[in-house]
TrEMBL record:
Residues of the active site: H18 (proton acceptor)
Ribonucleoprotein listed as a keyword: no
Record-listed substrate binding positions: R154, E256
Protein name (database record): UDP-2,4-diacetamido-2,4, 6-trideoxy-beta-L-altropyranose hydrolase
Transmembrane segments: none
Taxonomic placement: Bacteria, Pseudomonadati, Pseudomonadota, Gammaproteobacteria, Alteromonadales
Keyword Signal: no
Organism whose genome encodes this protein: Alteromonas lipolytica
Gene Ontology MF term list: hydrolase activity
Length: 349
């Protein structure tokens, strides 16, 4: 049986988005009879062990770039890897170049035209269509899997049907797997002040630190608002399809939100989120709010309040999501890779 070998990671500052989109690809591969091995850092391993639906064997990454290169190449050889997948911003150009000499093709999951992409055999970037010419010029032999069709979502999103907006009731707040900027509690306070009657769901990820969890629990216990707190949610698809409006960090969650037809306010908390977020805003199903520096919480809460009470606008946003929703991007990527490999083998023969 062939194997996909992933090298990725996550943590308090980087969140869990890289790990989760790799998991989406592993789930799609599993349905084609392929195994997966994940080489990850300790924080990502701890998160993975908390998942009830995880697909793939997990190895702890060794420390040091040269040692990690050796570990990854050895794992790929021993597993007779069909594909090596790199996803993360911590890989140097020299690291990517070293991995590119492996016997297995190298897939780079990219957001930022990461230095070293010129050595990848396959480049996947769901927001990367504007960079097609740049990718092709620097790496003319690569398979380019660019555009919305390659959004990598876990199979829970494939199996979930969006509810009609009239059947949704919650105002959901989720600022990613770790919320490194600490916005969850101050944002929730501002929203409760503007919308004391709204039914809130606040979702925190596995990287949310203990002190922040305690402070959040204290506020919820004393607040007069209706607030449900969900920590380390194992079924985000079910949560999103029950959300009338979401306020979320503009990472990989934005693709989940579009798939669930959920009207959203996306907070851009990192520069690598900007291109995809601007594309999403142009589609009409969400609005984008700047949060990379000082966040204007009062203005944000006022805008969320206005949307919450605007049934017409929320319906327009809901309907705008349907034409751009993609749930099977991981399966489309696997199909594109299979076609590319078959053509490559025919050419080599």
């Amino acid at each position: 049986m062939s194997t996909l070998v992933f090298c990725t990671g996550g943590g308090q500052q980087s969140g869990i988005g890289h790990v989760m989109r790799c998991q989406a690809l592993a789930q799609a591969a599993e349905e084609q009879g392929l195994d997966s091995v994940f080489i990850v850092n300790p924080a990502a391993r701890q998160f993975i062990l908390q998942r009830h639906d995880w697909t793939g064997r997990v190895e702890l990454a060794v420390e040091g770039e040269n040692a990690l290169i050796e570990q990854l190449l050895n794992t790929a050889d021993s597993a007779e890897a069909a594909l090596i997948v790199l996803d993360g911003y911590g890989f140097s150009e020299a690291f990517i170049r070293a991995i590119s000499v492996a016997n297995a093709p190298l897939l780079l999951l990219d957001d930022i035209r990461q230095p070293g992409y010129q050595y990848a055999d396959i480049i996947c970037n769901p927001a990367g269509e504007p960079w097609r010419d740049a990718y092709a010029q620097a790496n003319p032999g690569a398979l380019l899997c660019l555009g919305a069709g390659f959004r990598l979502l876990r199979r829970e999103f494939v199996a979930t049907n969006p509810l009609p907006l009239a059947q949704r009731f919650s105002l959901t707040v989720n600022l990613g797997g770790s919320d490194p900027t600490g916005l969850t509690l101050p944002l929730l306070k501002a929203l409760c002040h503007e919308l004391p009657e709204a039914p809130f769901r606040v979702v925190t990820g596995p990287g949310f630190d203990g002190a922040s969890l305690s402070a959040l629990a204290d506020f919820i216990a004393t607040s007069e608002c209706a607030i449900q707190h969900i920590h380390n949610c194992q079924d985000m698809a079910d949560l999103w399809v029950n959300s009338r409006l979401a306020v979320a960090a503009a990472g990989g969650s934005q693709f989940e939100l579009a798939a669930c037809h959920t009207p959203s306010v996306l907070l851009v908390v990192a520069e690598n989120q900007r291109q995809a977020s601007n594309q999403a805003a142009s589609q009409g199903w969400c609005e984008v709010f700047e949060a990379t520096d000082v966040v204007a919480l009062n203005a944000l809460a006022a805008r969320v309040k206005a949307l919450w009470h605007d049934d017409k606008q929320l319906n327009t946003m809901y309907e705008s999501a349907a034409p751009v929703a993609v749930r099977d991007g991981a399966w489309q990527l696997m199909a594109a890779i299979a076609t590319w490999r078959n053509r490559t083998m025919e050419t080599s023969c």
